[in-house]
Amino acid sequence: MAWLPPPARGARAVSLHAVGSRRRGLGGHVADVPNVARMHNYLLDGKDHYAVDRSAVQDALEYAPELYRLARAERLFLLRGVRWLAERADIDQFLDLGCGMPIGRAVHESAASGAGRGRRPRVVYVDNDPVVVAHGRALLDEGDSVVTVPGDVRDPERLLTESRVADVLDFRRPVAVLCSAVLHHLDDGRPQEAVAALRDVLAPGSALLVSHMCGDHAAPHIAGMLQEVYATASAPLTLRTREQIAGLFDGFDLTTPEVADVAHWPDARPRAGRRTITSYGGIARRPCA
Questions:
Q1: Is 4 among the domain residues?
Q2: Mean pLDDT, range 121-135, rounded to an integer
Q3: Is 127 within the bounds of a domain?
Q4: Burial category of 129 from C-beta neighbours within 10 Å (exposed 0-12, middle 13-18, buried 19 and up)
Q5: Cα separation of 92 and 174, whole Å?
Q6: What is the pLDDT of residues 141-199, one digit of tens each?
Q7: How far apart are CA 110 and CA 121, in angstroms?
Q8: DSSP percent split of the chain into helix, strand, coil, nearest 5
Q9: Per residue in 205-235, pLDDT tens?
Q10: What Rg value do the Cα atoms of the chain yield, rounded?
Q11: Which end of the chain is more exposed for a tag (fewer CB within 10 A), N or C?
């Protein structure tokens, strides 16, 4: 089993069932349908999931057993990338879109480890699931420098006007936007629109980190069956080509020659002979001129 970082320091146990009971007051039973955040949590060996989520994941694993490996590879790429951005790109502001259930080492901890002593990174975690937001506020928030807010990557304009986002992040300075394992849950056209809207407000020197599942190396019927499983969940799964994933970085300069298999980033050399679902990604900077 792949190594996962240890839990965030000072993390407090929170019952998913207790949080879920509050959500039911908003309408709809929290466990009625598989939820992609909880499914991802299950793939990472977390504890915040229901039987309906586990059943959906098991169905998906029948067609793509590599999903366990991919979930871990994407998570480790995110944490390595955040540390790289703090240490090598000197960025101390992070916007984590579709952050999902807290698990293992947190983004703000990876940022702090790369920033060095005396620097306190500022991080905004964003998710459109009220249960995820409640968990984030209980487990991740630290004063006025690390906060969790409700928001949707599909509506960046509204997100950017959220007062708590503006209170933490100064968009006149470089900000790293993190889109780890989230854009493949948007339908065609939506990721490009969201990234473009964010790009246009980012200061020069800002960064974009993306990991995205790809079906280039999978048999078509396998990709189709996997997408059918996610069609029953809270969000779809759209497997894009490596070329389409690279297109998400339009207007940015990649730090590698091309997008890479996240398990091997920054090595972008192609791996031959695979017939599996893959996750490609990269880190790019907004040009300074």
A1: no
A2: 96
A3: yes
A4: buried
A5: 8
A6: 999 999 999 999 999 999 998 999 999 999 999 999 999 999 999 988 899 999 999 99
A7: 10
A8: 40, 15, 45
A9: 999 999 999 999 899 999 999 999 999 999 9
A10: 18
A11: C
